[in-house]
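Backbone-to-sequence.
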């Protein structure tokens, strides 16, 4: 006699969780691609995060249903939960950075006399006609507590060699150089302006360097300013650190 084996059906919530997570991923990729091309698709990205939250809630519901009824679908629910959690990991990191760091969207290695951004036609066009505003020194002093490691850079190089090394370091970081003025005049000060883009969404940050010759050395001051104040999520300090790392690598090869 044959026995009729009735398989337990899949949990609808588990299947829905996985589908929502996959849909959230597709929406997020569309949003990221659009923002990277200069389109205002931040609302699309926000929508993908809401869908991811729905996927997590549906996965939790699926686990409850599976535990009580013995239905199938634990694997689908776990897949939906994991994928949605991965989508929310980066926004959660940004929220954590916002809570941990003060509103300091402009950092510099020189607090009393930070480098000025170039006002050349090329630099203004690259910055969409905007120039980062000056920051009162009282507010800049907050940087000493948050980023004590950000200090002026001293190179045991002559001005021209230091200028060339800085150019190479900026290119090594992937920054786009929008203006460069070699040392000249009585002071011999040189300037380099560039734009650094964030890794994931490509948000622009304006960076400027000032190179001042000293006796047998060159002092480099860097300033990094985010366009989307008041928070930079730590991007400006990373720009300074990335430049110093790239500059060290360039100088060590000489």
């Amino acid at each position: 006699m044959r026995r009729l084996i009735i398989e337990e059906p899949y949990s609808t919530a588990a299947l829905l969780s996985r589908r929502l997570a996959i849909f959230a991923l597709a929406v997020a990729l569309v949003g990221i691609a659009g923002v990277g091309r200069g389109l205002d698709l931040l609302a699309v990205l926000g929508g993908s995060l809401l869908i991811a939250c729905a996927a997590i809630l549906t996965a939790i519901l699926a686990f409850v249903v599976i535990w009580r009824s013995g239905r199938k679908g634990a694997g689908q629910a776990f897949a939906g939960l994991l994928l949605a959690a991965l989508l929310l990991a980066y926004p959660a990191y940004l929220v954590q950075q916002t809570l941990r760091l003060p509103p300091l969207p402009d950092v510099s290695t020189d607090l009393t006399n930070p480098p000025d951004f170039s006002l050349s036609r090329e630099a203004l066009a690259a910055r969409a006609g905007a120039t980062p505003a000056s920051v009162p020194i009282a507010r800049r002093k907050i940087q000493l507590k948050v980023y004590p490691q950000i200090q002026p850079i001293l190179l045991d190089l002559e001005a021209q060699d230091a200028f060339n090394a800085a150019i190479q370091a900026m290119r090594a970081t992937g920054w786009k150089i929008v203006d460069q003025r070699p040392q000249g005049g009585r002071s011999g000060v040189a300037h380099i302006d560039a734009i650094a883009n964030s890794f994931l969404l490509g948000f622009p940050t304006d960076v400027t360097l000032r190179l001042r010759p000293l006796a047998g050395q060159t002092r480099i001051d860097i300033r990094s300013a985010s366009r989307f104040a008041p928070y930079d999520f730590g991007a400006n300090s990373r720009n300074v650190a990335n430049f110093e790392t790239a500059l060290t690598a360039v100088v060590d090869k000489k």
